[in-house]
## 1
Amino acid sequence: KAGVTQTPRYLIKTRGQQVTLSCSPISGHRSVSWYQQTPGQGLQFLFEYFSETQRNKGNFPGRFSGRQFSNSRSEMNVSTLELGDSALYLCASSFKGRETQYFGPGTRLLVL
Amino acid sequence: KQEVTQIPAALSVPEGENLVLNCSFTDSAIYNLQWFRQDPGKGLTSLLLIQSSQREQTSGRLNASLDKSSGRSTLYIAASQPGDSATYLCAATTGNAGNMLTFGGGTRLMVKP
C-alpha cells in the first residue's frame, strides 16, 4: 500500500506570495491533518480534515487555510507569505482519526 | 491545554546499550500516545501507539509504556544500534481535542559504533 505523498517536496517563494501544498493520504484514509515544523517551535498542529470538512483547527492566522476533496486528497494554502512561514510542512493521514497517524515526507518551504 | 515535554533533548550512547527515552504530559485525559522517529530532513515514522487503556506496547526491540496517573510515557530501546540514531518524538491525542497531536520537543539520539 502506498504511503502518504506530498508535493512538491521543496519550494522557494518570496515574501507576499502565496503557496499551495498538496497531500495524498494512504488509500482508504479519510482523515488528513497538517503540521508545521520549525526549529524554534517544533511541530505544531495546523488543521484536520475529515470527509471534506475541517474538523479541528490549530492556533494559526487566517492566512493558513486548507481543503479536502472527495477522494480525501488535501491541499493547504498560505497567502501573503512571511519569512517566518519557512518550515517543513507535514501532513498525516489516518482511517478516521484517533488511530495511528502516518506522515508524509513533508514539503520544505523557504520564504525569501 | 496539553503540554508534552521530552528530556533530555539529546542523548549519546555506545552501541549495544539499552536506553530509555522519557516523555511527560500535563493533561491525563489523553486518548492515546504515539512515539515517532524522525531522520534528518525527513517525515515522521510511527513506531508505537498506546491507547489510554493500555499500559505498554512492544514492537521488536522497542517497548513503550504509559502511566496516565503520573503523566509519563517511556520508550525503551534494547541493544541499540547505529541505525537507531534519529530524533524520537512523542505525541499525545487528548480527549477533547479531536485528532490533534500535541508533540514534545523530541530527543535526538546518537548511537556510536
## 2
Amino acid sequence: GAGVSQSPSNKVTEKGKDVELRCDPISGHTALYWYRQRLGQGLEFLIYFQGNSAPDKSGLPSDRFSAERTGESVSTLTIQRTQQEDSAVYLCASSSAPNSYNEQFFGPGTRLTVL
Amino acid sequence: ILNVEQSPQSLHVQEGDSTNFTCSFPSSNFYALHWYRWETAKSPEALFVMTLNGDEKKKGRISATLNTKEGYSYLYIKGSQPEDSATYLCAFNAGGTSYGKLTFGQGTILTVHP
C-alpha cells in the first residue's frame, strides 16, 4: 500500500516568507507526527496528533510554527515569517494506535532552505 | 529533557567487517527503544522495536540488544555491505503522557567501503 507522502520535496524561500508543508499519512493511521532535522543535529519532535484529541504541541520551537490536521488524514505544517534557522529537513510520520509500541512510518521529508 | 546519545557519530568500515554502535538513554520511565535506518534520499525505515530488558532482535545480518536497567542498546552489523551505508538512529519512547513522542539520538553515520 501507499506509504507516507510529503510535499513539496524541496522548498527554497526567502527570509520572512510563510511556507506550508504537507503530509499525507498512511490510510487508517490515527496518529501523525512532525519532526525536523537541522544540519548536524538529531531528529527533533515538533508536534503529535492522535485521533480527535488535542495535539501535543510541546515541541514547536516558536509561535511562528503551527500545524493542523483534517480528521485522520492530511496535515499541514505552517511556518510564518521564516528565519534562516528554520532551514531543515521536515519529516512527517504516522502510526496506527494502539500498535506495536508506537512504530512510526516516515515520509521522505521536505528539505526547507531559507535564504 | 530526555538525553539520548549515540556513539560513534560516524564510522567507516571495509566491506565484510563487522561493526557495532551504541545508544544510551534514560533508565527510568522506559517504554520502548526503536532503531531506524535512514538512507540518503529515502525515508527512515524501522529496524527494531525493543521493549523488554534483555531483548535481542535480529533481522538478517543486523541484530540489536537492550539493557533497560543501565540504559543502553547495541546495534550490530555482521559482514557489512556497501548497501548498509546509512545513518542509524535510535529513539527512546517514555510512554505514559509522552506516549506519542520519540526522542531521537543524533545518529551514527555508517559508511561501508567496497
## 3
Amino acid sequence: EVQLVESGGGLVQPGGSLRLSCAASGFTFSDHAMHWVRQAPGTGLEYVSSISDNGGSTYYANSVKGRFTISRDNSKNTLYLQMGSLRAEDMAVYYCVRRFNAYDYWGQGTLVAVSS
Amino acid sequence: EIVLTQSPGTLSLSPGERATLSCRASQSVSSSYLAWYQQKPGQAPRLLIYGASSRATGIPDRFSGSGSGTDFTLTISRLEPEDFAVYYCQQHSNSFTFGPGTKVDIK
C-alpha cells in the first residue's frame, strides 16, 4: 500500500525557517518524481515545488522561488522541503504528492502556520 | 501560465441527479495532462480522472471525464451521498495549475 506521511509542520514567526519531510513507502520511491502542493485555509490548491526521480532536476512556483528548496534522499525514501523567509501567505497545509498519471497519491498534509 | 476556470462555483443537487462540472483553460491543454480531483472536508484530494477521460484506480464508473483543447467536463452520472465534495481540475502540460474548484452540495 502506497503511503506518504508528512511531518515537520508547526508554528513559525515571519522570516523564520522550517523543514518538512515526507516519508514514502509501498512503492519504489526512486522511480517517481515527487511534488509539494499547498492549500491555504479555505482556499484552493497551489503547486509549490517538484523534483525529478533522481533529484537532478528541481522546479519551483514563482511565489516560493529563492526561499524554498526541495530535495530527496532515495536511500531513505524521503522527500524534503526546506522553507525559509516565511511569510504570512505561506501559511497552509502542505501535501507531499507522487506524480504518476497526474497526482495519484497524496499524503495527509502537514500544517504550517506563520504568525508572530 | 495556463489559467483554469471552473464553473459553476457551487452546484446544488439531490442524490441520484446528474452533475456536470466544467473546466476551461486559458490556452490549449493536451488531453494527456488534464486531471480531476475530489476533496472532502479535512481530507487530502483524491485523483478521479487523468488524461482527461481515464478513471484512476478504484474510481466508480459513475465518474467520467471528457473534453479537449480548452474545454473539459467532469460528469457524475448519479450522485451518491459520498459524492458531495469539492472538485478541482488540474493541468500539468505547462507547469502545474489547478482550477478554483466546484463545490457540489446537497440541495
